[in-house]
Amino acid sequence: MNYIRTAMLLAAMTALFMGIGFMIGGQSGMLIALVIAAAMNLFSYWNSDKMVLRMHHAQEVDERSAPELHRMVRRLAENAGLPMPKVYLINNPQPNAFATGRNPQNAAVAATTGLLDMLSPEEVAGVMAHELAHVKNHDTLIMTITATIAGAISMLANFAFFFGGDNRNNPLGIVGVLLMMIVAPMAAMIVQMAISRTREYAADRMGAEICGEPMWLASALAKISGGVQRIHNPDAEANPATAHMFIMNPLSGERMDNLFSTHPNTQNRIDALRKLSHAGRGSGGSADFGRAGMRSAGPWGGSGRSAPSAAPGHRKGPWG
To answer: Which residue of 22, 82, 84, 223 has the fewest CB atoms within a 10 Å radius of its CB?
Structure first.
């Protein structure tokens, strides 16, 4: 159902984009709009991951520089049936993470130092599983395309303001152009955010299946929510177009699940994960979540054990 809804929203955004092109230049304008969108998507397909990682000053790490995190991601990727992604660290005290890359073979996951410092190993595993779910679902490509089309719609709307539109296709004249400038980018933003929220719910569920315990991610979301509201993220503020990529809105810790939120309401996400956890326990326990549950072989390596739970008041991550 989530895939159908995402496809419908993408179709709506594409139709909006081509409609603006038609109002500006008729059928030829619509064709030009389509060519522009294809060119921008092609550029984003090959370069978006490098651009986003550079924007947030992410540094690639390996088994020598961050052995615990690297080992954890490897175990989770094996559970998800994915190739090992590149792993990045962002020197930022705000707890957050994101995934990027055009496909699973060229994927990367990034976590902030704040995430590793504030969360327990189990909670970090839940977050990384969520990001790998985005990779498995090809959400990183979907969100790149929607962001590109949304930017192109804004560009076309501004183009219409400076050059006007075809009066045969825009009978409202300058009023129609002004409405196009205001309404079109807003509509594109609403559709983009709706797609983002849909994909977050799907990634939460699949992330719970990958790590084997929904409450690891639920607990992580509660901590991250408090962290993003208290801790400023200057790189995210400088690049707000990337906010939808993070596991939680890095700009304001948005609480309301409304049209203008890039992410679902945090409590709604936690409640959905609790239901998933209770359903699993009712049918045989957390091992039922995914065929390769992390319960039987924890993300820190070894057999039949997991990392110790964080003690009350735990603030420092295992990689600090």
So the answer is: 84
Contacts of 115 (CB under 8 A, 6+ apart): 95, 96, 97, 124, 127, 224, 317
Residue 302 lies in a domain: no
pLDDT digits (tens, 9 = 90+) for 102-141: 889 999 999 999 999 999 999 999 999 999 999 999 888 7
312 belongs to a structural domain: no
In a domain, 192, yes or no: yes
- CA–CA dist 211, 261 (Å, integer): 27
Question: Domain containing 214: what range?
Answer: 2-288
Active site residue 68: no
> Which of 122, 123, 131, 254 is an active site residue?
131
- The answer to whether residue 13 is domain-embedded is yes
Per-residue model confidence as pLDDT tens digits over 37-77 = 677 767 777 877 888 899 999 999 999 999 999 999 999 99
β-pair partners for 97: 111
How many folded domains does the chain comprise?
A: 1
Q: Which of 109, 104, 97 is nearest to 60 (CA)?
A: 109
Residue stretches of the chain with pLDDT short of 70: 1-3, 5-6, 9-10, 23-27, 29-30, 37, 41, 147-148, 151-152, 154-189, 192, 252-262, 281-320
